[in-house]
Protein backbone atom coordinates (compact mmCIF):
# COMPACT_ATOMS: atom_id res chain seq x y z
CA UNK A 1 0.00 0.00 0.00
CA UNK A 2 1.28 3.44 -0.87
CA UNK A 3 0.77 6.53 1.27
CA UNK A 4 0.62 10.31 1.00
CA UNK A 5 2.11 12.68 3.58
CA UNK A 6 -0.70 13.72 5.89
CA UNK A 7 0.10 17.46 5.71
CA UNK A 8 0.74 17.49 1.94
CA UNK A 9 -2.26 19.13 0.29
CA UNK A 10 -0.65 18.75 -3.13
CA UNK A 11 -2.20 15.29 -3.28
CA UNK A 12 -5.73 16.72 -3.09
CA UNK A 13 -4.81 19.59 -5.42
CA UNK A 14 -3.66 17.07 -8.01
CA UNK A 15 -6.50 14.65 -7.44
CA UNK A 16 -9.42 17.09 -7.66
CA UNK A 17 -7.88 18.74 -10.72
CA UNK A 18 -8.03 15.39 -12.50
CA UNK A 19 -11.39 14.52 -14.08
CA UNK A 20 -10.53 10.82 -14.03
CA UNK A 21 -10.05 10.38 -10.32
CA UNK A 22 -9.63 7.11 -8.52
CA UNK A 23 -12.63 6.33 -6.29
CA UNK A 24 -12.48 7.03 -2.59
CA UNK A 25 -13.47 4.26 -0.19
CA UNK A 26 -14.67 5.40 3.24
CA UNK A 27 -14.36 2.58 5.78
CA UNK A 28 -15.67 4.49 8.81
CA UNK A 29 -18.95 3.74 10.57
CA UNK A 30 -22.34 4.95 9.37
CA UNK A 31 -22.63 7.87 11.80
CA UNK A 32 -19.13 9.10 10.94
CA UNK A 33 -19.94 8.94 7.23
CA UNK A 34 -23.28 10.69 7.71
CA UNK A 35 -21.66 13.53 9.63
CA UNK A 36 -19.23 14.25 6.82
CA UNK A 37 -17.28 12.47 4.11
CA UNK A 38 -15.38 13.12 0.91
CA UNK A 39 -18.07 13.77 -1.71
CA UNK A 40 -18.45 10.81 -4.12
CA UNK A 41 -16.81 8.47 -1.56
CA UNK A 42 -18.15 4.93 -1.57
CA UNK A 43 -19.06 3.72 1.91
CA UNK A 44 -17.83 0.26 2.88
CA UNK A 45 -17.64 0.31 6.70
CA UNK A 46 -15.38 -2.05 8.58
CA UNK A 47 -17.52 -1.74 11.72
CA UNK A 48 -21.05 -0.66 12.54
CA UNK A 49 -21.48 2.18 15.03
CA UNK A 50 -22.12 -0.33 17.80
CA UNK A 51 -19.07 -2.43 16.90
CA UNK A 52 -16.86 0.66 16.71
CA UNK A 53 -18.00 1.65 20.22
CA UNK A 54 -17.14 -1.83 21.53
CA UNK A 55 -13.65 -1.73 19.98
CA UNK A 56 -13.08 1.77 21.37
CA UNK A 57 -14.06 0.72 24.87
CA UNK A 58 -11.81 -2.33 24.63
CA UNK A 59 -8.90 -0.12 23.55
CA UNK A 60 -9.35 2.18 26.55
CA UNK A 61 -9.64 -0.70 28.98
CA UNK A 62 -7.14 -3.20 27.57
CA UNK A 63 -4.93 -1.38 25.06
CA UNK A 64 -4.18 -1.80 21.36
CA UNK A 65 -3.64 -5.58 21.35
CA UNK A 66 -6.97 -6.27 23.08
CA UNK A 67 -8.76 -3.88 20.71
CA UNK A 68 -7.30 -5.64 17.67
CA UNK A 69 -8.43 -9.04 19.00
CA UNK A 70 -11.94 -7.72 19.71
CA UNK A 71 -12.12 -6.09 16.29
CA UNK A 72 -11.09 -9.28 14.53
CA UNK A 73 -13.77 -11.20 16.41
CA UNK A 74 -16.42 -8.78 15.14
CA UNK A 75 -15.39 -8.74 11.48
CA UNK A 76 -17.14 -10.94 8.94
CA UNK A 77 -14.69 -11.27 6.05
CA UNK A 78 -17.23 -12.96 3.83
CA UNK A 79 -19.69 -10.08 4.25
CA UNK A 80 -17.00 -7.50 3.53
CA UNK A 81 -15.85 -9.35 0.43
CA UNK A 82 -19.44 -9.52 -0.79
CA UNK A 83 -19.91 -5.76 -0.28
CA UNK A 84 -16.70 -5.05 -2.18
CA UNK A 85 -17.79 -7.24 -5.09
CA UNK A 86 -21.19 -5.53 -5.23
CA UNK A 87 -19.51 -2.15 -5.72
CA UNK A 88 -17.74 -3.26 -8.93
CA UNK A 89 -14.74 -1.06 -8.23
CA UNK A 90 -11.81 -0.30 -10.54
CA UNK A 91 -8.54 -1.91 -9.58
CA UNK A 92 -6.95 1.30 -8.25
CA UNK A 93 -8.54 3.19 -5.36
CA UNK A 94 -7.92 5.50 -2.43
CA UNK A 95 -8.97 4.38 1.03
CA UNK A 96 -9.38 6.29 4.28
CA UNK A 97 -10.70 6.01 7.82
CA UNK A 98 -10.89 8.71 10.50
CA UNK A 99 -7.17 9.20 11.19
CA UNK A 100 -5.42 6.72 8.94
CA UNK A 101 -5.08 4.09 11.65
CA UNK A 102 -6.01 0.46 12.13
CA UNK A 103 -9.26 0.49 10.15
CA UNK A 104 -7.74 1.76 6.93
CA UNK A 105 -4.74 -0.53 7.33
CA UNK A 106 -6.95 -3.58 7.87
CA UNK A 107 -9.24 -2.75 4.95
CA UNK A 108 -6.25 -1.89 2.77
CA UNK A 109 -4.84 -5.36 3.47
CA UNK A 110 -8.16 -6.97 2.47
CA UNK A 111 -8.45 -4.95 -0.74
CA UNK A 112 -4.91 -5.82 -1.75
CA UNK A 113 -5.59 -9.47 -0.98
CA UNK A 114 -8.45 -9.22 -3.50
CA UNK A 115 -6.14 -7.78 -6.16
CA UNK A 116 -6.68 -4.02 -5.77
CA UNK A 117 -3.96 -1.38 -5.78
CA UNK A 118 -4.62 0.72 -2.69
CA UNK A 119 -3.48 4.18 -1.65
CA UNK A 120 -3.99 5.14 1.99
CA UNK A 121 -4.25 8.71 3.27
CA UNK A 122 -2.34 9.00 6.56
CA UNK A 123 -4.36 11.24 8.80
CA UNK A 124 -7.43 9.92 6.98
CA UNK A 125 -10.56 12.05 6.77
CA UNK A 126 -9.02 14.63 9.10
CA UNK A 127 -6.44 15.39 6.39
CA UNK A 128 -9.23 16.03 3.90
CA UNK A 129 -11.00 18.33 6.37
CA UNK A 130 -7.85 20.42 6.80
CA UNK A 131 -7.64 20.72 3.04
CA UNK A 132 -11.29 21.81 2.74
CA UNK A 133 -10.98 24.39 5.51
CA UNK A 134 -7.87 25.83 3.85
CA UNK A 135 -9.93 26.54 0.71
CA UNK A 136 -12.18 29.00 2.55
CA UNK A 137 -9.18 31.18 3.37
CA UNK A 138 -8.40 31.75 -0.32
CA UNK A 139 -9.47 34.86 -2.24
CA UNK A 140 -12.03 34.36 -5.00
CA UNK A 141 -13.33 36.48 -7.86
CA UNK A 142 -17.10 36.54 -7.52
CA UNK A 143 -20.12 38.60 -8.48
CA UNK A 144 -23.23 38.53 -6.30
CA UNK A 145 -26.63 38.22 -7.95
CA UNK A 146 -29.18 39.98 -5.77
CA UNK A 147 -32.83 40.97 -5.83
CA UNK A 148 -36.06 40.66 -3.91
CA UNK A 149 -37.81 37.36 -3.22
CA UNK A 150 -39.25 35.86 -6.40
CA UNK A 151 -37.30 37.95 -8.94
CA UNK A 152 -35.73 34.82 -10.44
CA UNK A 153 -32.21 34.65 -9.02
CA UNK A 154 -32.22 30.86 -8.90
CA UNK A 155 -33.71 30.66 -12.40
CA UNK A 156 -30.88 32.81 -13.74
CA UNK A 157 -28.26 30.73 -11.96
CA UNK A 158 -29.69 27.57 -13.53
CA UNK A 159 -29.60 29.17 -16.96
CA UNK A 160 -25.96 30.08 -16.39
CA UNK A 161 -25.30 26.49 -15.34
CA UNK A 162 -26.87 25.11 -18.54
CA UNK A 163 -24.62 27.45 -20.54
CA UNK A 164 -21.61 26.17 -18.56
CA UNK A 165 -20.96 29.63 -17.16
CA UNK A 166 -19.07 29.75 -13.83
CA UNK A 167 -21.61 29.84 -11.00
CA UNK A 168 -22.04 28.65 -7.43
CA UNK A 169 -25.47 27.53 -6.24
CA UNK A 170 -25.27 27.71 -2.47
CA UNK A 171 -28.93 26.76 -2.03
CA UNK A 172 -28.41 23.59 -4.04
CA UNK A 173 -25.42 22.63 -1.90
CA UNK A 174 -27.39 23.41 1.28
CA UNK A 175 -30.54 21.66 -0.02
CA UNK A 176 -32.57 24.68 1.05
CA UNK A 177 -34.25 27.52 -0.82
CA UNK A 178 -33.73 30.10 1.92
CA UNK A 179 -36.34 31.69 4.22
CA UNK A 180 -38.53 29.72 6.60
CA UNK A 181 -40.16 28.02 3.58
CA UNK A 182 -36.92 26.76 2.10
CA UNK A 183 -36.78 23.34 3.73
CA UNK A 184 -40.28 22.25 2.76
CA UNK A 185 -39.11 19.93 -0.01
CA UNK A 186 -35.59 19.05 1.13
CA UNK A 187 -33.61 17.61 4.01
CA UNK A 188 -30.31 19.36 4.57
CA UNK A 189 -26.87 17.77 4.86
CA UNK A 190 -24.83 18.09 8.03
CA UNK A 191 -22.93 21.34 8.49
CA UNK A 192 -19.67 19.48 7.96
CA UNK A 193 -20.85 17.91 4.72
CA UNK A 194 -22.13 21.27 3.46
CA UNK A 195 -18.63 22.65 4.04
CA UNK A 196 -17.10 19.70 2.19
CA UNK A 197 -19.36 20.27 -0.80
CA UNK A 198 -18.79 24.03 -0.77
CA UNK A 199 -15.03 23.68 -0.44
CA UNK A 200 -14.74 21.43 -3.49
CA UNK A 201 -17.12 23.67 -5.47
CA UNK A 202 -14.85 26.63 -4.68
CA UNK A 203 -11.81 24.58 -5.65
CA UNK A 204 -13.29 24.15 -9.14
CA UNK A 205 -13.97 27.91 -9.36
CA UNK A 206 -10.75 29.27 -7.86
CA UNK A 207 -9.28 30.51 -11.16
CA UNK A 208 -12.57 31.90 -12.52
CA UNK A 209 -14.88 34.84 -11.98
CA UNK A 210 -18.21 33.34 -11.00
CA UNK A 211 -21.78 34.24 -10.03
CA UNK A 212 -23.27 33.46 -6.64
CA UNK A 213 -26.71 34.29 -5.27
CA UNK A 214 -26.98 36.81 -2.45
CA UNK A 215 -27.59 34.90 0.78
CA UNK A 216 -27.76 35.60 4.49
CA UNK A 217 -25.15 33.95 6.69
CA UNK A 218 -27.47 30.98 7.26
CA UNK A 219 -29.21 28.95 4.55
CA UNK A 220 -31.68 27.02 6.65
CA UNK A 221 -29.46 25.53 9.34
CA UNK A 222 -26.32 25.67 7.19
CA UNK A 223 -23.84 28.42 8.06
CA UNK A 224 -21.69 29.83 5.27
CA UNK A 225 -18.06 29.82 6.51
CA UNK A 226 -17.11 33.28 7.75
CA UNK A 227 -14.13 33.84 5.45
CA UNK A 228 -16.16 33.17 2.30
CA UNK A 229 -19.27 34.98 3.55
CA UNK A 230 -17.17 38.08 4.22
CA UNK A 231 -15.99 37.97 0.61
CA UNK A 232 -19.60 37.79 -0.56
CA UNK A 233 -20.42 40.88 1.49
CA UNK A 234 -17.66 42.90 -0.17
CA UNK A 235 -18.12 41.62 -3.74
CA UNK A 236 -19.84 43.56 -6.57
CA UNK A 237 -23.63 43.19 -6.39
CA UNK A 238 -25.84 43.08 -9.48
CA UNK A 239 -29.55 43.67 -8.90
CA UNK A 240 -32.17 41.61 -10.70
CA UNK A 241 -35.68 43.07 -10.91
CA UNK A 242 -39.09 41.72 -11.90
CA UNK A 243 -42.73 42.84 -11.74
CA UNK A 244 -44.80 41.94 -8.65
CA UNK A 245 -47.00 39.73 -10.85
CA UNK A 246 -44.01 37.77 -12.15
CA UNK A 247 -42.64 37.41 -8.65
CA UNK A 248 -45.94 36.03 -7.35
CA UNK A 249 -46.06 33.49 -10.18
CA UNK A 250 -42.53 32.24 -9.45
CA UNK A 251 -43.26 31.87 -5.75
CA UNK A 252 -46.51 30.05 -6.55
CA UNK A 253 -44.60 27.67 -8.79
CA UNK A 254 -42.03 26.91 -6.11
CA UNK A 255 -44.19 26.62 -3.00
CA UNK A 256 -47.94 26.36 -3.66
CA UNK A 257 -47.82 22.59 -4.12
CA UNK A 258 -46.66 22.09 -0.53
CA UNK A 259 -49.11 20.81 2.12
CA UNK A 260 -51.17 23.60 3.67
CA UNK A 261 -50.16 22.62 7.20
CA UNK A 262 -46.47 22.98 6.29
CA UNK A 263 -47.03 26.41 4.79
CA UNK A 264 -49.02 27.71 7.76
CA UNK A 265 -46.45 26.35 10.20
CA UNK A 266 -43.72 28.24 8.33
CA UNK A 267 -45.78 31.45 8.32
CA UNK A 268 -46.20 31.22 12.09
CA UNK A 269 -42.41 31.27 12.43
CA UNK A 270 -42.52 34.82 11.01
CA UNK A 271 -44.93 36.08 13.68
CA UNK A 272 -42.35 38.30 15.37
CA UNK A 273 -41.65 40.21 12.16
CA UNK A 274 -45.11 40.00 10.58
CA UNK A 275 -47.06 40.85 13.67
CA UNK A 276 -49.94 38.85 15.09
CA UNK A 277 -52.63 40.36 12.86
CA UNK A 278 -50.76 39.82 9.58
CA UNK A 279 -49.73 36.33 10.65
CA UNK A 280 -53.37 35.36 11.25
CA UNK A 281 -54.37 36.93 7.95
CA UNK A 282 -51.66 35.10 5.99
CA UNK A 283 -52.55 31.77 7.61
CA UNK A 284 -56.24 32.29 6.81
CA UNK A 285 -55.44 33.12 3.18
CA UNK A 286 -53.35 29.95 2.81
CA UNK A 287 -56.05 27.82 4.43
CA UNK A 288 -58.49 29.29 1.90
CA UNK A 289 -55.88 28.48 -0.78
CA UNK A 290 -55.80 32.13 -1.74
CA UNK A 291 -52.07 31.79 -2.24
CA UNK A 292 -51.55 34.88 -4.40
CA UNK A 293 -52.88 37.25 -1.72
CA UNK A 294 -50.89 35.47 0.97
CA UNK A 295 -47.73 35.84 -1.12
CA UNK A 296 -48.31 39.56 -1.64
CA UNK A 297 -48.62 40.03 2.11
CA UNK A 298 -45.45 38.04 2.79
CA UNK A 299 -43.57 39.77 -0.03
CA UNK A 300 -44.00 43.09 1.76
CA UNK A 301 -42.32 41.61 4.86
CA UNK A 302 -39.42 40.10 2.89
CA UNK A 303 -38.97 43.25 0.76
CA UNK A 304 -38.45 45.35 3.88
CA UNK A 305 -35.84 42.90 5.17
CA UNK A 306 -34.12 42.89 1.79
CA UNK A 307 -33.91 46.69 1.63
CA UNK A 308 -32.42 46.81 5.14
CA UNK A 309 -29.76 44.25 4.20
CA UNK A 310 -28.95 46.06 0.94
CA UNK A 311 -28.56 49.37 2.78
CA UNK A 312 -25.72 47.87 4.83
CA UNK A 313 -23.61 47.21 1.73
CA UNK A 314 -21.07 49.61 0.30
CA UNK A 315 -23.13 51.57 -2.30
CA UNK A 316 -20.09 51.64 -4.61
CA UNK A 317 -20.38 47.84 -5.00
CA UNK A 318 -24.03 47.91 -6.10
CA UNK A 319 -24.78 47.80 -9.83
CA UNK A 320 -28.33 48.48 -10.95
CA UNK A 321 -27.93 47.65 -14.63
CA UNK A 322 -30.74 45.52 -16.04
CA UNK A 323 -29.99 41.80 -16.09
CA UNK A 324 -32.10 39.82 -18.54
CA UNK A 325 -33.36 36.35 -17.72
Amino acid sequence: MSRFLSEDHSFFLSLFSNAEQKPFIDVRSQSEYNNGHIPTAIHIPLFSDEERAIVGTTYKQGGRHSAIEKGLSLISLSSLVEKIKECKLPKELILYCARGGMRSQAMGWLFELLGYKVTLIPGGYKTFRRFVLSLFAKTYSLCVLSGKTGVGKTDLLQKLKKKHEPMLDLEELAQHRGSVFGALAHSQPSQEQFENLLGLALFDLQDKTFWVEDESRFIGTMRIPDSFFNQMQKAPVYLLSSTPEERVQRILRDYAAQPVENLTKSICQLKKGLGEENTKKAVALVEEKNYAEAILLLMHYYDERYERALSKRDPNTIHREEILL
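The mean pLDDT is 89. The chain has two domains: 2-133, 138-319.
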